[in-house]
């Protein structure tokens, strides 16, 4: 029988280039920290710098990071499309040196994350990865920044997308939510991805963490039905009677006593720096076969990191004798759709023209969603 080790996992998402206030930075030591994307608001170099500072302050030997739809400097095709659209709209090429300076052309952002590896940061493109942690636990994760959509954002797809989550995955890390789970937008529509839900329902990882929908912050331990349909939905695949909502933002029309109790809990979360939930075999709700813990960790609200990060404690199997136990070791199992560092922006003939006027700078910012 495999031995296990209790593992503390800090989960955040949607920090948008913001920082924790001094008294809100999580102070405990964690085995792993995870950021589920939207590292920035406008994908600017200084926002990535702030995000790396935030990650540096988290006391964890391994910090796993994926991109979100706001992080278009990490999606070369999205950034080039935005620039091409701006050039066409204003009938003159943008100043490539300005674009590179603001958004990190020539692979600068990826270089920043590469340098941050010395402090435990690992930027993950879409794919499956395995890590042997310092606590000797073995962690297998699937990562994907992709969300459905056709707007001018990063890491979007129209039509089909293969979320290839393998069985035996411990944590699925995606930017967007699956359809039906903490995915109700501000205009009361479910915007989660049905294809992602199907992939999670069939693979049933221990944890699926994500963000993107800020009003969906919360956690739910889902019990799966014994028979999963060929095309599962949140209505057909989940045993709601055996599932439990651990925490959420509540509803505006809740009874006063429930709202008061929730407010008191959130004050406690803020004072300790996280909202915690434990799912070891000795806990009330252990993470066992047939269950998945869903966590929406979007913590930005109203221009600040107002919502608490999540601390999830789970049991992981330990490394086998002879493995690199006690030291951080990683293995990329199946990378997919890896984004290569893009070439210098505007390398064509027209890019040599310089525009020093404030109006040109304003055009650049406006079209690249900086206002």
TrEMBL record:
Calcineurin-like phosphoesterase domain residues: 8-215
Q: Where on the tree of life does the source sit, at the highest rank?
A: Eukaryota
- Which residue stretches does the UniProt record annotate as biased composition, category Basic and acidic residues? 360-371
Enumerate the residue ranges of region (Disordered). Answer: 335-371
InterPro entries recorded: Calcineurin-like_PHP (IPR004843), Metallo-depent_PP-like (IPR029052), UPF0046_metallophosphoest (IPR051693)
Which Gene3D superfamilies does the annotation name?
3.60.21.10
One example of the protein's molecular function in GO is: hydrolase activity
Q: What is this protein called?
A: Metallophosphoesterase domain-containing protein 1
Native organism: Colletotrichum spaethianum
In the record, what lineage is assigned to the organism producing the protein?
A: Eukaryota, Fungi, Dikarya, Ascomycota, Pezizomycotina
